[in-house]
Amino acid sequence: MPQPGDYQLVSADQTGVKKALSLPDPGATPFKLVVDPEMRMKLRRALVELIDYHDEALAEHFAEGKLALESYKEYIELFARSLKETMESREGVAYLLRAVGFQVPADKINLNPELRWKRGPGAFGSSLL
User: Which residues have C-beta within 8 Å of that of residue 10, sequence separation ≥ 6?
Assistant: First the structure.
């Protein structure tokens, strides 16, 4: 049985054993590695519910004659605008925060977070698209 003092910390160089760090999969998204998968699933669910809400609200307004549409293109443009305006609001961001379990006062929500891309190829600029 080992006794106290039988062990000491030594560097990998002294042991002759070097552990090579595995290279990350270049096709993998860093969010799968960094962000809690359960939180991502809750966020995805909240976004789908938000999309469904906007779709149903626009369809209801159209059915009631409150909204004029000339084409599917125009519907998609209005749908995108509606989602954009919601996501640019403190209420929209607060909805997503609540959906994943965070209670953040509206005045603490940053509507213009800085994108801090790492240097190198593949940076998207001001958008993820």
Answer: none
